[in-house]
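Recap for those who missed Tuesday's class. We walked through two folding examples back to back. For each one, the amino acid string is listed first and its predicted structure tokens come directly after. Nothing is annotated here on purpose, so try labeling regions yourself before you check the end of the notes.
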Amino acid sequence: MALPTTRTQLKTYIKRRLGEPVITVNVADDQLEERIDDALALFQDYHFEASEKVYLKHQLSYSNLVFASASTGTFTNNEIIRGQTSNTIGKVHTQTSNTRLEFVYSRTNDSATFTVGETIVGDSSNASATISTINTGDWDNQYVPISNLVMTVYRVLTVDGFAFSGRAGLFSANYQFLMNDLSWLSSGSAISYFLTRSHMEMLNDMFVGDMQLRFNRYVNKLYLDIDWRNRVKAGDWLVVEAKRILDPANYSSIWSDRFLRDYTTALVKRQWGQNLVKYEGVQMPGGVTLNGRAIYDEGNREVSQLEEQIQARFELPPEFLVM
């Protein structure tokens, strides 16, 4: 039969490999599902083909307010809004509808927020509305939400015109340097150009440096240790270099991977033996004696061998060397 391409086909493949329908594999469906999850977890953590390097783009979102009813009047872009109960101040980005408003907080105390049920009033438009829902955006949260499929974040890329770089597209030093020197690069030596660019990069590393970031795959939040108030603004784009797990729901060929098939089968065999250990030595009709311990030991030995194999043969080497 063909190799499995779905979770259900993998379950059937494992049972058939362990002896069904000739014999009964005494493993509950829930146990089978859990052993597949265990195998996937190890496969995704160690196997070099279970993940890929990606460049994820993300736009820092604005906070938004949803009103209990249509606002009285229309809030104008960039005006100041004030909470009548909390005394919190915000700055309007745009009113997207008569019941929804995008904004950012204008505060020195990051804990100050609007409250549900209070009324906000615009300083210049004198428009007002009562808040029913508050959704805090990335810029006000001061972190970037990350998919739970992302295992590692390497860096946040900087490009000309991007707020983190401190440069401004056509007016950046790099762009002007290239345009002024492009005419003689084709006819002269590139050595002086290379040395000058290297010197510029060294100065940039010394006085600007890369952004410091913090990320934990179980938190799903990317923290950037920067001055959010002065270096970035809502609406800016980020490009994040990361390693992301290949989701079997989108890449069905993962289910046919040889290591995943072998390791899942070994886990299920060990589970089968563990289920039968308590009946070891029981005499069955026909003179057959149950020996769950032998099945458990064989499965456990195969699991240990495969775990050593994935780290020795399929795990990528470290990407840096600490001296």
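Example two. Treat it independently of the first, because the proteins are unrelated.
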Amino acid sequence: MRTLQNRAVANHGDRSSRLISICATLHGFFIMLIKMDVLLYREFVMHNRLDQFLIHPPALRLTGIRRFAVEFIWFGIKEARACLFAGLFFLAIFTLPRAGMFGIARYDLLLIIAVAIQLLMVTTKLESWDELKSITLFHLLGFGLELFKTSSAIGSWHYPEAGWSKIGGVPLFSGFMYAAVGSYIIQCWRLMDLKIRHHPPILYAVLLSLALYANFFTHHFIGDYRWYIAAVALGLYARSVVVFTPYDRSFRMPLLVAFILIGFFIWLAENLGTLLGVWQYPNQIGAWATVHVGKWGAWSLLVMMTFTITLFLKDIKKRVHIAQ
């Protein structure tokens, strides 16, 4: 009996010491968070000044080739800033070794890196919570598409490597590839002071986006209507123009051209991703081959859908002129 009592007292003492240890660990963790918060606030101030400087640069009285050079260079700088999340994330995709690092599989490391970058951007106010909601929606839509496309019944592409973060054969980081596109577009709205002229009615744009997203699934069963949807998009957006400001002068571009250009660069990134074996199409299993050029069109349409989602951000609605 005394032995049982002694054991009970010993167990109670062990639990108490464990509780004290956990509390001490949590206390140290919270202290670390406070210190990080101070550092992140300083980073926010620095980045906020940078963004303000990019958006409101000093006035220049230049003409001719010098004015063009300044506008062109500022455009490149703003593009680099808008690609911050996408650039860092795809840099990780292109540089992490196939075997992973520190005993962590490549897919799992990519997930950790993507979440860390996104948290840092939100904490430092480089992205707002409202923007994060849209980016999360892009992630969910993209991941849902990935689950379907990589299923055994469809097999459009696959992820050959192992990882604990895979669900249904799809690594969770894959959704961030779609979120990266959304992040870029959202940042461009602010940094480039984008304005849209003659945008089609929002209802038509939403219905077109829904039809496009549905076709990614249904074309495996009832036929591919992608080019019919593209034809409708051509008619709806034929008059649409995006107005952007690199330095302090506004320039115009057909909105459809912007969709096609962004889709092209995503297609290039996809070629690099498959070349490094992060994911593979069936025709790339034996030896690598370029991603079919038709994917360029698919990505351009997906950019259009992503663009439509960003229209529902409260700070963006007022910049869109709906065609009458």
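Answers for example two:
The chain is about 65% helix and 5% strand.
Strands lie at 166-167, 170-171, 195-199, 241-244, 251-254, 320-322.
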